[in-house]
């Protein structure tokens, strides 16, 4: 007890000092994109999501897709179980947990009806609530949490969809009763997780580009109206706010070679959302999304020329990627993230990126009983990037460093896929990556994409290469000129005149 009192006294005395280390550090887990596939099989066809297929000779009989999963398949249930167990082992008493959606696999045969969707989500709800009893868990809806995927209607009149998440997926235990009516209106809600800190869970599927039921509706589910009202209340009550959602605003970071990447949200919805985010940027101290399965962040200019906000995107639990020649999606090691924040002002301080080395885990001879041995620390943000915290200013510094320093960019790109580096990032890839991180609106993005200054400065060996190429071109031109002169002087003047007069 006296320890607690001492700590409280110390906080009061030293609340101006950032480095104090008792009760002022809060922690929360971010888990996202589990994509559990109940039909994952260690002996299934790796070209068909590791599903058993009686009619195919290609089933992997004899070889093993892996106990913990496969880079070409979605997560086996066992992987999700050990992941949540590892979270408990590593930090059992977080202030809360954010869970940013996509619990169903990327397979067509799964989507039989809404009840299957709700049952799959409830399985993970129950795993989280039994592992972390009495810890607030804040969920949101992903594009793979709906039937069919990517689609939700503009209003709730035609169905009881949102009631299904509460009743059948178990979210009644997660969403405070006072917020049920908001959730039933459009799948969104907010929760005060501690005095002075409100988490707003937005339903980004209503704004998501493939959702063709909402593209023409200015405010699907009246979510913008609600969001503004909550933020207005929060700023009047001097609360700080974290926004969580599945799909981040802005642009994807991966493009077809030489091409531009595509926006994630309908134009009008992205515009309305970013307008609200800008207006309330002084109280929004964090934004957290999933969906891209990759470890990156975004800094928000909102066409203002200066950065006034940021988001951090957590990589997925599923290691899956599509095996196409363009490498638009990339394989990742399964991961979860522990974020540090300040209890004093809710500022984001740091995160620890934990991961399971899938290749290593699958090759272990005996099943590890201790999940601590499976999940390891990949890196800690502030240590790695040498910045004091996760504030927008710090993220801008990191971004500037990534633009200038190819060694730093290479390491960033390795962390992007949680240590599973499968491709190199050439200039086109770097432009797509850096523009998607620094541009949220269409005009910013278009400007960025057309400006070559966003290419990471080449390494010395590339400089040497460019120099050699330039030298070769010069020599070729000189030789060609010399030979042209020789031929020209030896050919008859008459012939030349004749040709030129035709
Ligand atoms: C995962 O955990 C749940 C809940 O404890 C359990 O019912 C299920 O059998 C586990 N599945 C696997 C594959 O370990
Ligand atoms: C497993 O595959 C069968 C056959 O394709 C399908 O009917 C079922 O819905 C799948 N179940 C799950 C949980 O993916
Ligand atoms: C939910 O979990 C149960 C028990 O582990 C399992 O039998 C069932 O297939 C799971 N349902 C879905 C839809 O994933
Ligand atoms: C939950 O709702 C009750 C009213 O029903 C309210 O008093 C309480 O503050 C809410 N709790 C949280 C964590 O939002
Ligand atoms: C739809 O939303 C309205 C509030 O906008 C709410 O009163 C109603 O209960 C909801 N309907 C269903 C079926 O959840
Ligand atoms: C919306 O897209 C789905 C496929 O995602 C398609 O089946 C449906 O016909 C489309 N609806 C409209 C109104 O375009
Ligand atoms: C804003 O606060 C008022 C007064 O406490 C409350 O009645 C209202 O429901 C709140 N609005 C939202 C959107 O939470
Ligand atoms: C895609 O990645 C594979 C390695 O996983 C590589 O061999 C191939 O060249 C890449 N394709 C492109 C177009 O980058
Ligand atoms: C570039 O980044 C690397 C890795 O973070 C670092 O060691 C190196 O000092 C940086 N170089 C410069 C010139 O800042
Ligand atoms: C994962 O494990 C493999 C095999 O043990 C190893 O080659 C690889 O370097 C490891 N990756 C990371 C990011 O530690």
From TrEMBL:
One of its GO terms (molecular function) is metal ion binding. SUPFAM superfamilies: Metallo-dependent phosphatases (SSF56300). Keywords: Glycoprotein, Hydrolase, Membrane, Metal-binding, Secreted, Signal, Transmembrane, Transmembrane helix, Zinc. Its cofactor is Zn(2+). InterPro entries: ASM_C, ASMase/PPN1_MPP, Calcineurin-like_PHP, Metallo-depent_PP-like. It is found in: Secreted. Residues 310-452 form the Sphingomyelin phosphodiesterase C-terminal domain. Belongs to the acid sphingomyelinase family. This is Acid sphingomyelinase-like phosphodiesterase 3b. The lineage of its organism: Eukaryota, Metazoa, Ecdysozoa, Arthropoda, Chelicerata. The gene is SMPDL3B.
């Amino acid at each position: 007890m006296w320890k607690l009192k001492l700590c409280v006294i110390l906080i009061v005395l030293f609340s101006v000092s950032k480095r104090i280390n008792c009760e002022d550090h809060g922690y929360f887990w971010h888990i996202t994109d589990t994509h559990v596939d109940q039909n994952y099989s260690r002996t299934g066809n790796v070209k068909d999501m590791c599903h058993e297929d009686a009619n195919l000779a290609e089933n992997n009989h004899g070889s093993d897709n892996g106990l913990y999963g496969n880079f070409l398949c979605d997560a086996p249930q066992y992987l999700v179980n050990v992941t949540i167990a590892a979270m408990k082992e590593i930090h059992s008493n977080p202030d809360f947990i954010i869970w940013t959606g996509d619990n169903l696999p990327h397979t067509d045969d799964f989507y039989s009806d809404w009840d299957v969707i709700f049952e799959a989500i409830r399985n993970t709800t129950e795993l989280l609530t039994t592992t972390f009893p009495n810890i607030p868990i804040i969920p949101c809806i992903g594009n793979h949490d709906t039937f069919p995927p990517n689609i939700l209607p503009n209003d709730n009149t035609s169905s009881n969809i949102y009631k299904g998440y509460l009743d059948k997926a178990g979210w009644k235990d997660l969403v405070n009763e006072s917020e049920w009516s908001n959730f039933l209106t459009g799948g969104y809600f907010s929760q005060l997780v501690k005095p002075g800190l409100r988490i707003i869970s937005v339903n980004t599927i209503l704004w998501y580009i493939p959702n063709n039921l909402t593209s023409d509706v200015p405010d699907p589910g009246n979510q913008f109206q609600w969001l503004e009202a909550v933020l207005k209340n929060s700023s009047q009550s001097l609360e700080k706010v974290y926004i969580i959602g599945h799909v981040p605003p802005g642009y994807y970071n991966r493009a077809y070679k030489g091409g531009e990447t595509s926006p994630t949200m309908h134009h009008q919805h992205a515009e309305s959302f970013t307008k609200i985010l800008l207006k309330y940027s002084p109280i929004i101290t964090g934004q957290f999304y999933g969906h891209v399965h990759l470890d990156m962040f975004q800094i928000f200019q909102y066409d203002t020329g200066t950065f006034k906000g940021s988001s951090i995107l957590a990589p997925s639990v599923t290691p899956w990627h599509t095996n196409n020649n363009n490498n638009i999606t990339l394989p990742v090691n399964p991961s979860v993230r522990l974020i540090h924040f300040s209890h004093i002002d809710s500022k984001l301080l740091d995160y620890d990126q934990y991961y399971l080395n899938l290749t290593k885990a699958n090759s272990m001879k005996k099943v590890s009983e201790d999940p601590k041995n499976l999940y390891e620390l990949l890196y800690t943000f502030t240590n790695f990037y040498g910045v004091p915290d996760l504030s927008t200013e710090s993220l801008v510094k990191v971004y500037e460093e990534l633009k200038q320093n190819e060694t730093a960019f290479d390491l960033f790109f390795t962390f992007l896929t949680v240590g599973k580096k499968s491709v190199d990032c050439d200039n086109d890839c770097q432009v797509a990556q850096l523009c998607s991180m620094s541009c949220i609106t269409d005009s910013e993005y278009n400007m960025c994409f057309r400006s070559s200054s966003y290419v990471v400065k080449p390494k010395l060996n590339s400089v040497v290469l460019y120099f050699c190429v330039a030298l070769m071109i010069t020599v070729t031109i000189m030789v060609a000129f010399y030979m042209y002169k020789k031929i020209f002087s030896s050919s008859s003047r008459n012939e030349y005149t004749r040709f030129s007069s035709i």
